Description:
The protein is mainly alpha-helical. The chain has one domain. The chain is built from 3 helices and no strands. The protein has helices at 2-42, 48-76, 82-98.
Amino acid sequence: MATAALMLTAGVLAGVHGALSAALGGAVSIVSGVVAAVVAARGRPGSAGGVLFAALGAEAVKIGLIVVLLWLVLMMYEGVVVTAFLGTFIVTALVFAMAFFVRDA
């Protein structure tokens, strides 16, 4: 939802390249989050230490993937609007981080 809203805003302000840059920024965050969740779910920890190890491993994969995807977009997409790209990435990453604190009623 945040990615779509920022994509529309960037599209109005910076045109097609702004909208695409915002979409790519959101995609970096979403893809890295999904991959981290898959890595964490694959672990079969039998103890509290195992759970911690699986979570840290998933976070390491997430951070590594973020670095690689950010670099790929910035190097390969010549028309990238950096403020839209990084802004959407940061907002989407913050939304994912805040989801941890949301509890069901």
